[in-house]
Amino acid sequence: MQKIKQRWEIQKNWQFLFPILGTFLNLLTAYLISRSLLHIFNLNNTIYEWFFTLGVMLAIHLVLIKFFLWCFKKLENKWRVDYKWEMIAIFIVFAITGSLSGKLAGPLIHWLGLDAENIPGALYWTLRILLIFPIYQILLVLIGWLFGQYQFFWNFEKKMLKRMGLGSFLR
């Protein structure tokens, strides 16, 4: 436990929440991917189902952990954070925001009456993807605030909008 505290610069016990939550979400992602692969290989309801699921899940989990540690190393100097555990919180916020904005765009576009049955498929998906963008921008700051990273995400948001030529919205 002391090794984890030192590696992620954890000062208080509540900060353990982020490595634990990050590990849980990584395992969940690996599980969902392995279950999708299970269906692709038609191994449902066979004797190999759970062996396949657990084996592939652990392999994907390890690959994702290696990938995220590589990302942390690359972004460590670019993102200005006080403690390394904040990097985990930032990655979690990006993951939740991306997933949630994609999920919310469907019901919102339905509420606007722009279902795939009403308009051509290409237009539907174009509008849905365009709708994801403002949802993502709002959720990024909101969820960042919930995870105690408001200042990081507000600065990130301002920089992104300026690069896109939308800096006038910040005034």
Automatic annotation (TrEMBL):
Transmembrane segments annotated in the record for this chain: 16-38, 50-71, 83-102, 122-148
Key words, A-Z: Membrane, Transmembrane, Transmembrane helix
Keyword Cell inner membrane appears in the UniProt entry: no
Domain DUF6787: start-end pairs: 90-166
Pfam families, A to Z: DUF6787
Keyword Protein biosynthesis: no
The protein's name in its UniProt record: DUF6787 domain-containing protein
